[in-house]
Design brief:
Length: 284
Protein backbone atom coordinates (compact mmCIF):
# COMPACT_ATOMS: atom_id res chain seq x y z
CA UNK A 1 0.00 0.00 0.00
CA UNK A 2 1.36 3.42 -0.97
CA UNK A 3 1.78 5.73 2.01
CA UNK A 4 0.66 9.39 2.03
CA UNK A 5 3.45 11.80 1.14
CA UNK A 6 3.71 13.30 4.64
CA UNK A 7 4.11 9.85 6.27
CA UNK A 8 6.64 8.84 3.64
CA UNK A 9 8.70 11.97 4.29
CA UNK A 10 8.50 11.44 8.04
CA UNK A 11 9.84 7.90 7.72
CA UNK A 12 12.71 9.13 5.55
CA UNK A 13 13.52 11.99 7.94
CA UNK A 14 13.53 9.56 10.85
CA UNK A 15 15.80 7.14 9.02
CA UNK A 16 18.29 9.84 8.03
CA UNK A 17 18.33 11.27 11.56
CA UNK A 18 19.00 7.86 13.11
CA UNK A 19 21.69 7.10 10.54
CA UNK A 20 23.41 10.39 11.31
CA UNK A 21 23.53 9.26 14.95
CA UNK A 22 25.24 6.00 13.99
CA UNK A 23 22.16 3.78 14.13
CA UNK A 24 21.79 1.45 11.10
CA UNK A 25 18.25 1.63 9.71
CA UNK A 26 15.98 -0.10 7.19
CA UNK A 27 12.36 0.30 6.01
CA UNK A 28 9.61 -2.10 7.09
CA UNK A 29 6.48 -2.97 5.17
CA UNK A 30 3.18 -4.18 6.61
CA UNK A 31 3.29 -6.55 9.59
CA UNK A 32 6.86 -5.46 10.42
CA UNK A 33 8.34 -7.40 7.49
CA UNK A 34 11.53 -6.12 5.79
CA UNK A 35 11.75 -5.41 2.08
CA UNK A 36 13.98 -7.16 -0.41
CA UNK A 37 16.40 -4.48 -1.58
CA UNK A 38 17.57 -5.69 -4.97
CA UNK A 39 15.78 -6.25 -8.27
CA UNK A 40 15.87 -10.03 -7.87
CA UNK A 41 14.24 -9.74 -4.46
CA UNK A 42 11.77 -6.98 -5.36
CA UNK A 43 8.52 -7.46 -3.53
CA UNK A 44 10.35 -9.75 -1.09
CA UNK A 45 10.18 -12.55 -3.67
CA UNK A 46 12.91 -14.45 -1.87
CA UNK A 47 10.90 -14.51 1.35
CA UNK A 48 13.13 -12.03 3.14
CA UNK A 49 16.17 -14.24 3.37
CA UNK A 50 19.08 -15.12 1.07
CA UNK A 51 18.26 -16.93 -2.12
CA UNK A 52 18.65 -20.69 -1.65
CA UNK A 53 19.18 -21.16 -5.40
CA UNK A 54 22.54 -19.39 -5.29
CA UNK A 55 24.29 -21.61 -2.74
CA UNK A 56 22.69 -19.76 0.12
CA UNK A 57 23.62 -16.31 -1.09
CA UNK A 58 21.53 -13.62 -2.67
CA UNK A 59 22.98 -12.46 -5.98
CA UNK A 60 23.24 -8.88 -4.76
CA UNK A 61 26.51 -6.94 -4.50
CA UNK A 62 25.92 -6.51 -0.76
CA UNK A 63 23.66 -7.92 1.96
CA UNK A 64 20.14 -6.86 1.20
CA UNK A 65 17.77 -8.53 3.64
CA UNK A 66 16.43 -7.69 7.10
CA UNK A 67 19.11 -6.81 9.68
CA UNK A 68 21.89 -7.26 7.08
CA UNK A 69 20.36 -4.45 5.01
CA UNK A 70 20.49 -1.88 7.82
CA UNK A 71 22.79 1.01 6.98
CA UNK A 72 23.94 4.45 8.13
CA UNK A 73 24.81 5.53 4.57
CA UNK A 74 22.47 8.38 3.56
CA UNK A 75 23.10 7.65 -0.13
CA UNK A 76 21.78 4.12 0.29
CA UNK A 77 18.82 5.31 2.37
CA UNK A 78 17.86 7.73 -0.39
CA UNK A 79 18.81 5.42 -3.27
CA UNK A 80 16.45 4.47 -6.08
CA UNK A 81 16.02 0.95 -4.66
CA UNK A 82 15.03 2.18 -1.22
CA UNK A 83 12.96 5.05 -2.60
CA UNK A 84 10.55 2.41 -3.86
CA UNK A 85 10.46 0.88 -0.37
CA UNK A 86 9.81 4.15 1.45
CA UNK A 87 6.71 4.68 -0.71
CA UNK A 88 5.18 1.58 0.87
CA UNK A 89 6.96 1.50 4.24
CA UNK A 90 4.82 1.41 7.35
CA UNK A 91 7.68 1.90 9.82
CA UNK A 92 11.41 2.41 10.28
CA UNK A 93 13.46 -0.37 11.85
CA UNK A 94 17.03 -0.46 13.12
CA UNK A 95 19.75 -3.03 13.82
CA UNK A 96 20.44 -2.80 17.58
CA UNK A 97 23.65 -4.82 17.46
CA UNK A 98 24.98 -2.58 14.69
CA UNK A 99 24.45 0.41 16.98
CA UNK A 100 26.09 -1.44 19.91
CA UNK A 101 22.70 -1.82 21.63
CA UNK A 102 20.52 -4.60 23.01
CA UNK A 103 16.72 -4.46 23.12
CA UNK A 104 14.86 -6.54 25.69
CA UNK A 105 11.46 -6.88 24.06
CA UNK A 106 8.74 -7.26 26.69
CA UNK A 107 5.58 -8.43 24.98
CA UNK A 108 2.97 -8.16 27.73
CA UNK A 109 2.19 -6.82 31.19
CA UNK A 110 3.52 -9.91 32.97
CA UNK A 111 6.86 -9.58 31.18
CA UNK A 112 7.07 -5.90 32.13
CA UNK A 113 6.39 -6.76 35.77
CA UNK A 114 9.15 -9.37 35.67
CA UNK A 115 11.60 -6.85 34.16
CA UNK A 116 10.84 -4.23 36.78
CA UNK A 117 11.54 -6.77 39.49
CA UNK A 118 14.68 -8.30 37.98
CA UNK A 119 16.42 -5.94 35.54
CA UNK A 120 18.26 -2.65 36.09
CA UNK A 121 16.29 0.41 35.00
CA UNK A 122 17.28 1.75 31.59
CA UNK A 123 15.87 3.63 28.60
CA UNK A 124 12.31 2.40 28.01
CA UNK A 125 10.15 2.66 24.89
CA UNK A 126 6.45 1.84 24.83
CA UNK A 127 5.30 -0.64 22.15
CA UNK A 128 1.81 -1.63 21.02
CA UNK A 129 1.67 -4.50 23.53
CA UNK A 130 4.49 -3.89 25.98
CA UNK A 131 7.87 -2.18 26.22
CA UNK A 132 11.40 -2.19 24.80
CA UNK A 133 14.14 -1.90 27.42
CA UNK A 134 17.30 -0.68 25.69
CA UNK A 135 20.78 -1.29 27.06
CA UNK A 136 24.22 -0.14 25.90
CA UNK A 137 26.21 -3.08 24.54
CA UNK A 138 25.56 -5.90 22.04
CA UNK A 139 24.95 -9.63 22.54
CA UNK A 140 23.46 -12.58 20.68
CA UNK A 141 19.78 -12.29 19.80
CA UNK A 142 17.53 -14.94 21.32
CA UNK A 143 13.76 -15.31 21.19
CA UNK A 144 11.59 -16.55 24.05
CA UNK A 145 14.26 -16.44 26.75
CA UNK A 146 11.28 -16.52 29.12
CA UNK A 147 7.52 -16.01 28.61
CA UNK A 148 6.92 -12.82 26.64
CA UNK A 149 10.61 -11.83 26.54
CA UNK A 150 12.83 -11.68 23.43
CA UNK A 151 16.34 -10.29 23.11
CA UNK A 152 17.15 -8.34 19.94
CA UNK A 153 20.72 -7.26 19.26
CA UNK A 154 23.12 -8.82 16.72
CA UNK A 155 21.55 -10.31 13.58
CA UNK A 156 18.12 -8.89 14.44
CA UNK A 157 16.09 -5.77 13.85
CA UNK A 158 13.64 -3.82 16.00
CA UNK A 159 11.00 -1.29 15.06
CA UNK A 160 11.90 2.32 15.86
CA UNK A 161 9.22 3.69 18.17
CA UNK A 162 10.94 6.82 19.43
CA UNK A 163 13.62 7.65 21.96
CA UNK A 164 11.47 6.68 24.94
CA UNK A 165 12.19 7.72 28.50
CA UNK A 166 14.88 7.15 31.10
CA UNK A 167 18.66 6.92 30.94
CA UNK A 168 20.30 4.07 29.04
CA UNK A 169 22.52 1.85 31.20
CA UNK A 170 25.18 -0.75 30.41
CA UNK A 171 24.02 -4.20 29.37
CA UNK A 172 23.78 -6.15 32.66
CA UNK A 173 25.03 -9.66 33.29
CA UNK A 174 21.50 -10.82 34.05
CA UNK A 175 20.46 -10.10 30.45
CA UNK A 176 23.61 -11.72 29.05
CA UNK A 177 22.85 -14.78 31.15
CA UNK A 178 19.36 -15.01 29.65
CA UNK A 179 20.88 -15.09 26.17
CA UNK A 180 23.52 -17.62 27.17
CA UNK A 181 20.98 -20.24 28.18
CA UNK A 182 20.84 -22.92 25.57
CA UNK A 183 23.59 -21.35 23.45
CA UNK A 184 25.87 -23.57 21.42
CA UNK A 185 29.54 -23.99 22.32
CA UNK A 186 32.13 -21.91 20.45
CA UNK A 187 33.13 -24.99 18.47
CA UNK A 188 29.85 -26.68 17.56
CA UNK A 189 29.48 -30.38 16.99
CA UNK A 190 29.15 -31.76 13.49
CA UNK A 191 25.84 -31.09 11.79
CA UNK A 192 23.59 -34.12 12.04
CA UNK A 193 20.42 -34.58 10.04
CA UNK A 194 18.10 -37.50 9.26
CA UNK A 195 19.30 -39.98 6.66
CA UNK A 196 18.34 -39.38 3.05
CA UNK A 197 15.02 -40.96 2.02
CA UNK A 198 15.57 -44.55 0.95
CA UNK A 199 19.13 -44.58 2.25
CA UNK A 200 20.52 -43.01 -0.92
CA UNK A 201 24.19 -42.06 -1.19
CA UNK A 202 24.90 -38.43 -0.34
CA UNK A 203 26.04 -36.66 -3.54
CA UNK A 204 28.25 -34.33 -1.51
CA UNK A 205 30.35 -36.94 0.25
CA UNK A 206 33.00 -36.92 -2.47
CA UNK A 207 36.10 -35.82 -0.53
CA UNK A 208 37.36 -33.51 -3.29
CA UNK A 209 33.99 -31.74 -3.59
CA UNK A 210 33.68 -31.11 0.13
CA UNK A 211 37.33 -30.12 0.53
CA UNK A 212 37.07 -27.64 -2.33
CA UNK A 213 33.96 -26.11 -0.79
CA UNK A 214 35.57 -25.66 2.63
CA UNK A 215 38.76 -24.27 1.11
CA UNK A 216 36.79 -21.73 -0.93
CA UNK A 217 34.81 -20.71 2.16
CA UNK A 218 38.00 -20.23 4.19
CA UNK A 219 39.51 -18.21 1.34
CA UNK A 220 36.44 -15.99 1.11
CA UNK A 221 36.63 -15.15 4.80
CA UNK A 222 40.40 -14.68 4.74
CA UNK A 223 40.31 -12.29 1.79
CA UNK A 224 37.46 -10.14 3.13
CA UNK A 225 38.59 -6.54 3.64
CA UNK A 226 35.38 -5.11 5.09
CA UNK A 227 31.98 -6.14 6.49
CA UNK A 228 33.68 -9.13 8.10
CA UNK A 229 30.67 -9.94 10.27
CA UNK A 230 28.36 -10.10 7.23
CA UNK A 231 30.91 -12.08 5.20
CA UNK A 232 31.30 -14.70 7.93
CA UNK A 233 27.54 -15.15 8.29
CA UNK A 234 26.91 -15.39 4.55
CA UNK A 235 29.81 -17.83 4.10
CA UNK A 236 28.52 -20.07 6.90
CA UNK A 237 25.09 -19.91 5.27
CA UNK A 238 26.53 -20.98 1.92
CA UNK A 239 28.41 -23.93 3.44
CA UNK A 240 25.38 -25.13 5.39
CA UNK A 241 23.02 -24.74 2.44
CA UNK A 242 25.23 -27.07 0.40
CA UNK A 243 26.49 -29.55 2.99
CA UNK A 244 24.33 -29.09 6.10
CA UNK A 245 21.59 -31.55 5.24
CA UNK A 246 23.69 -34.58 4.38
CA UNK A 247 25.70 -34.87 7.58
CA UNK A 248 29.08 -34.71 5.81
CA UNK A 249 30.45 -31.77 7.82
CA UNK A 250 32.76 -32.73 10.66
CA UNK A 251 34.08 -30.82 13.66
CA UNK A 252 37.35 -30.36 11.78
CA UNK A 253 35.58 -28.65 8.86
CA UNK A 254 33.68 -26.35 11.19
CA UNK A 255 36.80 -25.59 13.22
CA UNK A 256 38.59 -24.49 10.03
CA UNK A 257 35.79 -22.03 9.27
CA UNK A 258 35.79 -20.69 12.85
CA UNK A 259 39.58 -20.36 12.86
CA UNK A 260 39.50 -18.32 9.66
CA UNK A 261 36.79 -16.06 11.07
CA UNK A 262 38.62 -15.51 14.34
CA UNK A 263 41.81 -14.68 12.45
CA UNK A 264 39.84 -11.78 10.91
CA UNK A 265 38.82 -10.51 14.35
CA UNK A 266 35.57 -12.38 15.03
CA UNK A 267 35.13 -13.62 18.58
CA UNK A 268 34.15 -17.23 19.35
CA UNK A 269 30.74 -15.91 20.41
CA UNK A 270 30.26 -14.09 17.10
CA UNK A 271 31.22 -17.26 15.22
CA UNK A 272 28.72 -19.30 17.21
CA UNK A 273 25.99 -16.70 16.70
CA UNK A 274 26.62 -16.63 12.94
CA UNK A 275 26.61 -20.43 12.71
CA UNK A 276 23.45 -20.75 14.83
CA UNK A 277 21.58 -18.07 12.88
CA UNK A 278 22.58 -19.68 9.58
CA UNK A 279 21.22 -23.02 10.76
CA UNK A 280 17.98 -21.41 11.90
CA UNK A 281 17.60 -19.62 8.56
CA UNK A 282 17.97 -22.92 6.73
CA UNK A 283 15.77 -24.86 9.16
CA UNK A 284 18.59 -27.18 10.28
Amino acid sequence: MTQPTDIRREHLRTALSLAASGIPVLPLRARKVPFGNCRRCAGNACGGRPNMKTAGLCACPAPCHAWAAATTDPDVIQSAVWRHAWVRATAVAYHPGGAWLTVVDLDNAAAITWARENLPATQTVATTRGEHWIYQGPMRSVNAVRPGVDIKSTMAYARWLGAGTGTMTELPDVVRALGAKGSAPARPAAVTVPALPGGGECPHRTPAYLERGIAMAVQRITEANSTIHHTVYRTFLAVLSTHGRCGCLTEDHIARLFTAAQAKGETPRHCTDAWTNARITLGL
